[in-house]
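Quick one, T. Sequence first:
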Amino acid sequence: MGLALADDALAAGETDAARSHLETANSHLALAYSGWVEGRLLRQEGAYDEAAARLEAAIEADAGGSAALLERARALNRAGDPLGALKSYEAFRAAGGRSPRGLVEEAQIRLDRRDDTGALANLEALSAFEPDHPSAYVLKAEVLYRQGREEEALAEVKTALKLSPKLSSGRLPEGVKRLHPGVLTGLGSLTLISDRTKGLALLRGAVEDDDAPPEAHFMLGKALVGRKRTRKEGRKALARYLALAPQGPHAKEAAKLSRRRR
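Structure tokens:
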């Protein structure tokens, strides 16, 4: 508003009035930009509610551009307001903002809310302009595991592991809060081939989760039962698999392995 008044005054030849309006406008802009910077600072310091309020004021003053919307989304998410965060992420994208991490964060919220369709839309958008982002494949695999589409999920895990070998150590890719037990199972089964220690660690991590798929128990049991030192743990894992999936695809093999003596 101040800039428009300054421009009108200048067009009318009223230079003093133009300068006065310009100084007022600069003062408001400086205050708004200060709020944008302060909001970012507060978010990094962990004061999420205050950060969201400062960023809201900056957005209303049109300071910070679409980046302010992204920062507000992150602040609201950490403040425990996922719905507010989603609206801000959506506004950020509607304003033309592009952020791989932002899409991962938005997808993560949708997954937490069991909105698989919305999460997949975010992840497809991510893959469209950054096809080698491992987080997209890790989170797609989570959706597919939850839907019982294990083979498709494993294919996504293979791609993620190829793009980010550090996943074999349980390292979280950018923006991902945790590895779904199905993803851990896939990573474990693939990693066992080249690194038994890392593969077992991933499978053990999977079976500790209450939502672990039966496959995790079978893969862990199969890997352990053949060695005397770990046979007891292996049989326990196989028994758990049979309890969860008595008619499962590995039931006969699990029963046979459970009786194995050496």
